[in-house]
Specification:
Layout lengths: L2 H12 L5 H8 L3 H13 L17 E10 L5 H9 L4 E6 L6 E8 L3 H9 L6 E8 L9
Antiparallel strand pairs: 1-3, 1-4, 2-3
Helix pairs in contact: 2-3
Length: 143
Amino acid sequence: MDETDQKIIDLLSRDGRMANNEMAKQLGVSEGTVRNRIKKLTDAGRLRVAGLIDPDTVADKQLMFLGIKIAVSRDLCKKAEEIMRLTEVKSVCLTTGRYDLIAELWLDAKYGLINFLSGSLAKIEGIAATESFLVMKSYRKWL
């Protein structure tokens, strides 16, 4: 990625609906250049343009993070991939520190966490411990 690619990504991160011709004007390049760069970035899997919501505006859903300890270290990547396949999971990160993995969850507000822990996640073997973190308020967070 060069400086032009980064500037296109920066513009799209502020306004994912910005027209290619508007980006071209701001960057001093042709509309075709912007269109080709976006296509190349998306084809390479480096960019994805998507509609996002502010999680604080959805009354019946709750954003949570789950710290996860894996029983056997050699299974970290395998377990991360298994957890990522669960529908309630938005992302999974391998981390240093107290937890091997941190999962970002988008759950039903009332019983979502207990249903996730005792249902979906319980089916995955090799999880030694978890700790949940309820997001009370988020800033600049979009899902």
